[in-house]
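This part of the workshop introduces the protein records we will be handling. A record pairs a protein's sequence with a compact description of its fold. Comparing a sequence with its tokens is the quickest way to learn the format. To make this concrete, we reproduce a full record directly below:
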Amino acid sequence: MTKHNVFDEASSLTEFWSQRILQESNGTLLKVAKGIDSTHWHRHDDQDETFLLLTGRLVIQMRDGDVDLAPGDLFTVPQGVDHCPVAPEEARFVILGRTVTSNAAGGKPEWSWSGGSPAVDPAR
């Protein structure tokens, strides 16, 4: 049995849109992640994906409208629903689900592999 501080664990991540498993409970993985900019549109046909925002802001875009999360907010994207998480500023969060989804099929953008950062938009 190991105790984890989700804020410390999320702060220590070096790669955006990657997930670190902290614990497993009743078949559910409790993972921390951080994001900035946007993932790709994707869906998980095998599981729901629950987000608990720790810091920053996270917008879960869905085909029928956006869900804007503030620290402390919890939201579940149902299995099979298209979504695209967007972090207008760096966001740290907990994800609950049955498997790790931080891969290309899970919406992970190419720039984020190996600790990359999103391209700077001169219009910003």
